[in-house]
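[audit] Reproducing an earlier prediction to check determinism. Same input, same settings, fresh worker. If the tokens differ from the archived copy the diff job will pick it up downstream; this log only records the rerun itself.
[audit] input (423 residues):
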Amino acid sequence: MMRRLLLLLLTLPVAGAGMAQVVSRSTSPVVRAYIDSLHNAKLHLDTTHATTQLQQGLTSVEDFMLFSPFTYFHAPIHRVLTMQDSTRAAVRYNVAQQLLNMYLRHPEAVSTDESSLRNVQGIDAVVDKPLISQGTLTGKDNSDIIDPGTEVVEVLVRKPNFWTISGDYYLQFLQNSVSGNWHKGGESNYSALASITMQANYNNKQKVKWDNKLELKLGFIHSRSDSLHRIKTSEDLIRYTGKLGLQATKRWYYTFQTLAYTQFYRGYKANDPMVYSCFFAPFNLNLSLGMDYTVEAFHKRLKGTVHLAPIAYNFRYVRRPELATRYGLKEGKRMLHDKGSQFTVDLEWKFSDMVSWKTRLYAFTTYKKAEMEWENTIAFKFNRYISSNLFLYPRFDDGVKRDDHHAYWQFKEFLSVGFAYSF
């Protein structure tokens, strides 16, 4: 009996629960009770060992993270991206690498995140926080500092250029030939038109702006029906516009504007020897003080300025006294001084790369009489150098003698095709 009991004591710790189950039910109750107590002691030891491993953060932590419901943990990312050198860290690194691989390849499989798991009591004991390394100064390096040497570099500072230069040029021709027996009548004629517009604008980006524009236009026409003049001017203009502005807001400027214009040659009518205009007959000078508004719309396709001047002075000089009454002066006088208000609208609208519209609306009033000009040029570009221009120019002036047919209105129009260049 004692030998049998000693044999059981030696084999039960190894066999464990399996031996307890194979013991015959005929064994005495005392032996069965002893075997059961040994089995319970083994289970208690296994549980204690697992708990110790869990607290030490060895394999049980990684098992939990790897085989729990697929969860996004912060620690694996930290471990993979941090240098490790211990065996324990190597185990954690392998688990973290597997989790990171799953995060990247199958993000849709993540069912929860670490923040949600932390709401469950006791999860902080399983999911450890990333370790933060704190370095300490152990010594000072007293080695000599190596001088990389110096090299002289020449720095070139360019003075900013606040000037913008631009220009438009075109030379256009028109020829019309009609035989003497043409059933609808008419006459043959030839015409040419040249135009130069030059701009030099200054803007220092510090509230000061100075714009300068010079416009020169000269056109000639030849017709067989005019027996007195071989050629006559069809277009004749010299005009300078200058604006000196001080910025008030983003788009408004306090502005002083100077506008001066006259013509090159004498102007005639067909088969009429009378001179209707010439150089400095008339000459107009308009000085105004007001505000400018900068227009910029439709993705910068519409650009220009609007000048509003409640204070304006207009000076007119007519070199030929016989033309005085044609330009609002008293008979025999050569100079006229007017005070009033003035506004100018100067815009360019590019509908496309091939079609553009330039318009200029000028008006001056003394509150007793008014003068208005509206110039419109619609340009059609066929290519970079060839274009066609349609020019429409209505004008109102009630300071001159009233016409029986057109009253105080005047109108001019022409269509031309030719060479054009812009820069």
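[audit] rerun output stored. Observation attached for the diff report: The mean pLDDT is 80.
[audit] end
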